[in-house]
Amino acid sequence: MARKIIITCAVTGAIHTPSMSPHLPITPAEIAQASIEAAEAGASIIHLHARDPETGEPSPDPALFMQFLPVIKQSTDAVVNITTGGGLNMTLDDRLAAPLQAKPEMASLNMGSMNFNISGSAGRVKEWKHDWEKPYLERTVNHIFRNTFQDIEQIVERLGKGHGTRFEFECYDVGHLYNLAHMLDRGVVEGPLFVQTIFGILGGIGAEPRNLMFMKETADRLFGDQYVWSVLAAGRHQMNFTTIAGMLGGNVRVGLEDSLWIGPGKAATSNAEQVRKIRRILEELGNEIATPTEARQMLALKGGDLVGF
């Protein structure tokens, strides 16, 4: 029987910089357009960051989010998922400013503090558009993304219990699954959990198929029928890993936040191009793509009429 697969599209993120791709959405208008195109291509969830429209630098400014969130809502039925990870060197209050104002149906939530090293990207860029980009990448050799147990509980309390937002629990390593199980056992969070297993970030678990299987087996053991499983992989691993996930009945995440590529040595020209490709693969594997309504039912979301934008 056909399985319903949720496609999430992460349209811009805080990892890639403008010099890495001319197709990376930067301005609110570009982010809105990329989101609408991704939804039309088949993404039922759109994961969102904001950027300074002049420099492309990741920004936590709620005013920037509010320039594209209403446009996306008016133009699509897609579930809007706002980051609580923000960008490098943002405080917890910075990271929560926009989601607390927007009160989205979903938000991302990293399940632990971790080394997060993307400095290697700097060596692959020949010309820089902005002065901030190269130092931003290079300093991650000494960067720790902080999300302590207290931070996680505070996000759940303020955003989840405060506004009915549910979470995309981002698990970059096996320990993050156990952190989430700890929160579930204590009643801090409740099912159905949307568990995003992430592969290929330096500082997290490597992008090897055996690791994908081990992460799934561990999540099955820890969460049983209380979770919905999804997979994303960084860079060149994106399509391979999401294809494996589709073969196993898992949900998937693509988008220019996670990878700038559409195939070996070929740059993606849009988020929608990546969505169309994985949708074709998933459908050829015998799956059906979940609509936003079906995604809301699977994840027990509050509905688009209860958000703050």
Structural description of this entry:
The chain has 309 residues and is an alpha/beta fold. The protein has one domain (4-306): TIM Barrel (Alpha-Beta Barrel). 39% of the residues lie in helices and 19% in strands. The strands form five sheets. The protein has an eight-stranded parallel β-barrel, surrounded by eight helices. Strands 1-16 form a two-stranded parallel sheet. Strands 4-5 form a two-stranded antiparallel ribbon. The N and C termini lie far apart (38 Å). The mean pLDDT is 97.
Q: Which SSEs are present, and which pair or pack?
A:
Blueprint: E1 4-5, E2 7-10, H1 28-41, E3 45-48, E4 50-51, E5 58-59, H2 62-75, E6 79-82, H3 92-102, E7 106-110, E8 114-115, H4 133-138, E9 144-145, H5 149-163, E10 166-171, H6 174-185, E11 193-199, H7 209-223, E12 227-233, H8 238-247, E13 251-254, E14 261-263, E15 266-267, H9 271-284, E16 288-289, H10 292-299
Parallel strand pairs: 1-16, 2-3, 2-13, 3-6, 6-7, 7-10, 10-11, 11-12, 12-13
Antiparallel strand pairs: 4-5, 8-9, 14-15
Helix pairs in contact: 1-2, 1-9, 2-3, 3-5, 6-7
Adjacency order of strands in the biggest sheet = 2-3-6-7-10-11-12-13
How many beta-strand elements? 16
Percent in helix:
25-40%
Number of helices: 10
Radius of gyration: 18 Å
Stated plainly, the CATH topology is called TIM Barrel
| Rounded average pLDDT | 97
**Percentage beta strand:** 15-25%
Which descriptors apply to this entry?
309 residues, alpha/beta, TIM Barrel, eight-stranded parallel β-barrel, two-stranded parallel sheet, 10 helices, 39% helix, 19% strand
